[in-house]
Write a structure and sequence with these properties.
about 220 residues, Fusion Protein Consisting Of Minor Coat Protein, Glycine Rich Linker, Tola, And A His Tag, Chain: A, Domain 2, elongated, six-stranded mixed sheet
Length: about 220
């Protein structure tokens, strides 16, 4: 038997009526948000991770109260850093976007005949990966390693990478480039990055995809 689902955190709660949702191939569909709603009351941990990955980390589900985390955490520090931090060496870091692992696992047994009146509905909220040591360490890392050299352009480079469960970065690539000099510099610096604190799903580290915009500005 697989491990039970626990410590789930929700982005939002929903008052949708499970009984009135249309069922297609054993999966409920919500007319309000036009999304699939998965029944995780009897699902196991591995099944939950497969479904989450297949749906780009963006799912709605039905859970029991005892499957919920006791407290919803404050806004992750990483999001706070990127909304507030300014690195004053010609490079500003701002905004962030976290993407989920994009795989195609099979979906298994989502139906349930007995409805629990205490079920909780909502969108699952994974904990995103973070740079080790906090905002100060991230600033120091950029100040030490990222340079604005002659021939570079002003503008934004969007870099993508995977954060593996062990925290190492993988599959670095430029999603939106600026110039070869700028793009190569961003890739070079992120290859020097220490291991990150990995993303967590259901309390366990998992592979996650991430992208960070880097703004070059010659001051």
């Amino acid at each position: 038997m697989g491990e039970q689902i626990k410590n789930i955190r929700l982005k939002f709660s929903c008052n949708a009526d499970w009984d009135n949702m249309i069922s297609i191939d054993g999966i409920k569909h919500c007319d309000h948000c036009q999304k699939k709603v998965y029944d995780f009351i009897d699902a196991k941990h591995n099944e939950f991770l497969k479904i989450l990955a297949e749906n780009n980390n963006n799912i709605c589900g039905r859970f029991l109260p005892e499957q919920m985390a006791r407290k919803h955490p404050a806004l992750p520090a990483w999001k706070q850093w990127l909304s507030a931090a300014m690195v004053l060496v010609g490079i500003n870091i701002f905004n962030n976007r976290a993407d989920a692992q994009d795989t195609k696992p099979k979906i298994t047994n989502q139906s349930r005949t007995k409805i629990d009146s205490n079920a909780v509905f909502g969108g699952v909220d994974p904990i995103q990966p973070t740079f080790p040591g906090g905002m100060s360490a991230y600033k120091d890392f950029l100040l030490k390693n990222l340079h604005y050299d002659k021939g570079m352009l002003n503008g934004k480079v969007l870099v993508y990478f995977e954060v593996k469960p062990d925290g190492s970065l993988n599959n670095l690539r430029i999603l939106k480039g600026l110039s070869k000099l700028n793009d190569d510099e961003v890739i070079r610096v992120f290859k020097l990055s220490p291991k990150w604190v990995p993303a967590l799903l259901n309390g366990k580290p998992v592979l996650s995809n991430y992208s960070v915009p880097v703004l070059f500005q010659n001051n």
